[in-house]
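Escalated from tier 1: PXL holo job.
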Amino acid sequence: MKRILTIQDISCLGKCSITIALPLLSSMGVETVILPTAVLSTHTMFRNFTVKDLTDQLLPITDHWKSEGVTFDAIYTGYLGSAEEIEITKKIFREFKTKDTLIFIDPVMADNGKLYPAFDESYAALNAGLCAEADIIVPNLTEACFMTGTSYKENFTEAEYKELLQKLGALGAEKVVLTGAVLSEGMTGVYGLDTTTGEYFRYQNRKIDASYHGTGDVFSSVSVGGILNGLSLMDSFKLAADYTADTIAATMKDPKKPWYGVNFEETIPQLVRNLEAAKKA
Ligand code: PXL
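Tier 2 regenerated the structure:
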């Protein structure tokens, strides 16, 4: 069984970060080791959330794993709490990265043109530095703009997307993948660049007119889970984009849906079926 380490926060209530990554990756048959960067009462879209920072725990925990000889097939990072945690995460990469370890970074810090409450522009610059260490990065459009000094707008032309991807590629990751890229009306999805070949790639599906929290974490978790199941990069992104869209659609149908996240629990059986089908194809 493949083993992944995911480094991000625990938002006790809120359906994001580790409370999405752990169930989804487990359901995809991947052993998921967690390194919580902080424990929050809720995610930061709630008012009056509490935070217990865990920066001082990160290295003692990973040192213990190292002494036990633990290895990882992939390391997937999401919401990190501070500049110091970005630096420690780089150290953890160096400790655990072998030539076969996939480093997958979702530089979670912003959406819809704005940084999340805990972050500022200097954090965005540090996140750009972290992305240099990745094999694959999956920023949303807002995060890509902050990391490359590009003015944010909802829609880019094809040429502007390509320019943005080139700037993302210059940060240093091998494969850079924009999420929430609208390439034609009524559609959304991924637009990526493989910097080793210079090839662009894309996958689009229907754009659902609703914005839910945690969908980026759903997309990233399923993407990296697909890769660890041996799917190609494109098949992994397709699985993830379709699952994210289907989950948003299922959530919209629920009259009792929570405002703060998606009903991904409801669509896990479908994810498992789709993964099996993709593996057989
Ligand atoms: O879903 C991204 C995310 C993760 N973790 C925390 C957040 C957010 C987005 O707001 O606040 C704590």
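The chain has one domain: 3-280.
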